């Protein structure tokens, strides 16, 4: 903006820093001050996220934004807004009585009901998000989204990249747990039916471009020939060199990959599992603090199981059960956090388990695969990256990546 204004002959004077853009030499000073201000902003943001993290671990953080039906009081607590709560109850009742999200959003627009953001832009996706919000039963799921640690701080849906915290009974409920559970079951059933109509294929959401990272889309010609294409290439061929790849060649490449794995399982998969196990053992060996934490987690998990059995037997009321369970879950969360600090690699155990499952799948699979097996593909392959139109990189569950050259022929 400074350069644009300067080009237009407009100079700017910064009173705080006592510098102006009328001198050419001040652009460097402006850049330095801008960099310092940016670093200060990044530092403040990181400190704020650490504060939120600590409050989530203690079960104290609820939300920064109140959903429809609530308002924030005392800077952190949620309080029911009666007139908005009636709208929320109507939405759940309408959905459970058979009306869809499109009909509900249309009715809300007709009535001029504003969303929680204050605008009347109701859409089916907005309604679905509201119907899935656990805050309406008095619970809080923290960290539904997350931002990367580097600037710019773009927020992304949290699908396991960052730890989440589920806290029960954090505020008054608007919807009963039974109605909320029924709504989730109905939503899942409708989503399943929709997917069945749309057609979900083995490569759906697994096939990506190794050049630009875009998801591949499936195309079927009039004569029945099926190909998968990089979406960027489809929109602009010059933007990405990876074009169409026949589906039959992709399936043939997986068959070849599986047969190679089956023949070389002891030299490909087994060493990887052994190395990860050795690394995990080395990190924990001779560490009494780690052993104590693992023992405490096991004891807390056992207490949770016993409390659940007592509740099932009707020996304690729901309030006492929820209180004890909340205390145990908070303790387990804190113990796991301490263990991750010691281990310094929270994904290693999950990686080992995934790799062992992959190895077990190959061991128990057919001795030789003749045709493409959809179930086997789903169990083994996490993603397929098209390095080029003639080369694919298969990523197996457990992190192993293997490359296959495409061959002629269909399977």
Q: In total, how many beta strands?
A: 15
Q: What's the SSE pattern? A: HEEHEEHHHEEEEHEEEHEHHHHHHEEE
Q: Percentage of helical residues?
A: 40-55%
Structural class determined from secondary elements: alpha+beta
Strand order of the largest sheet: 9-13-14-15
Please report the distance between the alpha carbons of the first and last residues: 57 Å
The largest sheet, given as strand count, sense and whether it forms a barrel, is: 4 strands, mixed
Q: Globular, elongated, flat, extended or rod-shaped: what is the shape?
A: extended
**Helix count, DSSP H or I runs of 4 or more residues:** 13
Low-confidence sequence ranges: none
Rg value: 27 Å
Mean residue pLDDT:
78
What is the subunit organization of this protein?
single chain
Report the portion of residues in β strands: 5-15%
What does this structure look like?
The protein is α+β, with helices and mostly antiparallel strands. Helices cover 52% and strands 14% of the residues. Strands 9-13-14-15 form a 4-stranded mixed β-sheet. The chain has a 3-stranded antiparallel β-sheet with strand order 10-11-12. It has a two-stranded antiparallel ribbon with strand order 1-2. The protein is extended, with a radius of gyration of 27 Å. The mean pLDDT is 78.
Give the secondary structure arrangement, pairings included:
Blueprint: H1 2-7, E1 13-14, E2 19-20, H2 26-58, E3 70-73, E4 77-80, H3 82-96, H4 101-111, H5 124-131, E5 140-142, E6 145-147, E7 155-157, E8 165-167, H6 177-198, E9 207-209, E10 216-220, E11 226-230, H7 231-235, E12 244-246, H8 247-263, H9 265-284, H10 288-312, H11 318-343, H12 348-364, H13 374-380, E13 381-388, E14 391-396, E15 401-405
Parallel strand pairs: 9-13
Antiparallel strand pairs: 1-2, 3-4, 5-8, 6-7, 10-11, 11-12, 13-14, 14-15
């Amino acid at each position: 903006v400074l350069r644009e204004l300067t080009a237009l002959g407009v100079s700017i004077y910064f009173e705080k820093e006592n510098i102006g853009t009328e001198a050419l030499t001040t652009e460097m000073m402006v850049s330095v001050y801008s960099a310092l201000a940016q670093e200060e902003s990044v530092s403040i943001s990181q400190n704020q996220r650490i504060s939120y993290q600590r409050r989530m671990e203690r079960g104290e953080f609820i939300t920064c934004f109140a959903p429809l039906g609530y308002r924030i009081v005392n800077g952190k607590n949620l309080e029911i807004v009666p007139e908005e709560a009636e709208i929320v109850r109507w939405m759940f009742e309408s959905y459970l009585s058979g009306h869809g999200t499109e009909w509900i959003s249309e009715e809300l627009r007709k009535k001029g009901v504003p969303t929680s953001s204050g605008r009347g832009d109701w859409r089916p996706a907005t309604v679905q998000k509201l119907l899935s919000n656990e805050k309406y039963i008095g619970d809080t799921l923290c960290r539904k989204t997350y931002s990367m640690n580097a600037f710019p701080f773009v927020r992304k849906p949290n699908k396991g990249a960052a730890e989440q915290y589920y806290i029960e009974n954090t505020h008054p409920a608007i919807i009963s747990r039974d109605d909320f559970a029924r709504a989730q079951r109905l939503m899942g059933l409708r989503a399943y039916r929709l997917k069945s109509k749309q057609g979900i294929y083995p490569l759906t959401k697994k096939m990506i471009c190794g050049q630009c990272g875009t998801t591949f889309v499936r195309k079927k010609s009039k004569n029945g020939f099926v190909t998968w294409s990089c979406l960027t290439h489809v929109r602009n061929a010059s933007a990405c060199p990876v074009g169409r790849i026949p589906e039959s060649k992709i399936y043939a490449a997986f068959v070849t990959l599986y047969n190679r794995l089956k023949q070389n399982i002891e030299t490909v998969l087994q060493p990887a599992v052994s190395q990860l196990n050795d690394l995990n053992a080395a990190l924990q060996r001779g560490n009494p603090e780690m052993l104590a934490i693992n023992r405490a987690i096991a004891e807390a998990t056992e207490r949770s199981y016993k409390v659940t059995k007592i509740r099932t037997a009707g020996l304690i009321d729901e309030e006492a059960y929820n209180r004890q369970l909340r205390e145990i879950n908070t303790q387990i969360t804190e113990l796991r956090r301490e263990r991750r600090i010691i281990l310094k690699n929270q994904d290693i155990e999950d990686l080992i388990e995934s790799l062992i499952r992959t190895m077990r799948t190959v061991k128990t699979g057919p001795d030789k695969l003749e045709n493409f097996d959809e179930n086997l593909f789903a169990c083994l392959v996490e993603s397929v990256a098209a390095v080029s139109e003639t080369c694919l990189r298969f990523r197996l569950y457990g992190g192993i990546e293997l490359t296959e050259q495409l061959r002629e022929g269909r399977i």
